[in-house]
Design a protein that fits this description.
It comes from Desulfomicrobium baculatum (strain DSM 4028 / VKM B-1378 / X) (Desulfovibrio baculatus). This is protein-glutamate O-methyltransferase. Keywords: Methyltransferase, S-adenosyl-L-methionine, Transferase. There is one protein chain. The radius of gyration is 21 Å and the shape is globular. It has 2 domains: about 70 residues, Chemotaxis Receptor Methyltransferase Cher, domain 1, CATH 1.10.155.10; about 190 residues, 3-Layer(aba) Sandwich (Rossmann fold). The relative contact order is 0.12. The protein has a 7-stranded mixed β-sheet. The protein has about 280 residues and is α/β, with parallel strands linked by helices. Helix 2 runs antiparallel to helix 5 and helix 6 crosses helix 7.
């Protein structure tokens, strides 16, 4: 077998697939089945080339080392998941936030700070969409203090998110008035790039977090986004993860999940309010 550069590429044995599957499940909670073997092999071959390694066994040994867990595990996440994200993805959530949640929350908590967590934030489009929605409410409807924490396991993707620089083609889903208020155009117009304004960037704090680890938040959240992340987990891991979210949600706080995801059949202290929208009991 040859890779994209015409070089001989190692084939993954069923034994190696089983070893990787067990490692990925223990570290990331993600199930890799036999049907994913070709995909996993192709993506890991790129990592082997990058690291100048000759076998999957050598790569797995590196992954299991202290350095590998810190440096390479995020690359493994990128290899087994797909970072599909966009501004104002699943827009009904942001309409519900501005039209329903915020007015009700402010009545119950006058003068307090609205705390949001964007879990699995990828390259930042979701937390900046959240920030735009909250800032617009603050400017247009009622003064609102808010904080946003955004987490991801990949340090590289977090650096990209913190830079807050995006290609022109990414911003088509942002309402025109928000583009005018919250985006800066590159001085070099030929680059066709935009950047989130500093006032909005400053409202978002980025942190690295693996969902399999303990959550080290001191404060409880009023709203948690965890959208299109749980599709990679089995039911047991999904339940454990959502229970951890519940532990970090204020009573009466809200959880948004992806519209293709479901919490049906779970025994959790949550009440469904709308599609993919839940309240902590």
């Amino acid at each position: 077998m040859y890779d994209a550069n015409g070089q001989t590429a190692p084939l993954m044995t069923d034994k190696e697939l089983k070893q990787f599957s067990e490692f990925i499940y223990s570290e990331l909670g993600i199930k890799i089945t036999q049907t994913k073997k070709t995909m996993l092999q192709a993506r890991l071959q790129r990592r082997l080339r990058t690291l100048n390694m000759r076998s999957y066994g050598q790569y797995l040994e590196y992954l299991q080392s202290l350095k590998g867990l810190e440096v390479e595990l995020p690359q493994m996440v990128d290899a087994v998941t797909t970072n599909t994200t966009s501004f104002f993805r699943e827009p009904k959530h942001f309409e519900y936030l501005s039209q329903i949640i915020l007015p009700q929350w402010q009545k119950k908590h006058p003068g307090q700070t609205f705390a949001v967590w964007n879990a699995g934030c990828s390259s930042g489009e979701e937390p900046y969409t959240t920030a735009m929605t909250l800032m617009d409410y603050h400017q247009r409807v009622s003064p609102l203090r808010f904080t946003i924490v955004a987490t991801d396991i990949s340090t590289d993707i977090l650096k990209k998110a913190a830079r807050a620089v995006y290609e022109d083609e990414k911003i088509g889903t942002i309402p025109v008035e928000f583009r005018r208020k919250y985006l800066l155009r590159s001085k070099d117009r030929s680059r066709r790039m935009v950047r989130i304004i500093p006032e909005l960037r400053d409202t978002v704090s980025f942190r690295r977090l693996n969902f399999m680890d303990d959550f080290q938040f001191r404060e409880k959240m009023d709203l948690i986004f965890c959208r299109n992340v749980m599709i990679y987990f089995d039911k047991k891991t999904q339940n454990e993860l959502v229970q951890k979210f519940c532990n970090h949600l204020e009573p009466g706080g809200y959880l948004f999940i992806g519209h293709s995801e479901s919490l049906a059949g779970t025994d959790l202290p949550l009440k469904q309010l709308a599609p993919a929208t839940y309240m902590r009991l």
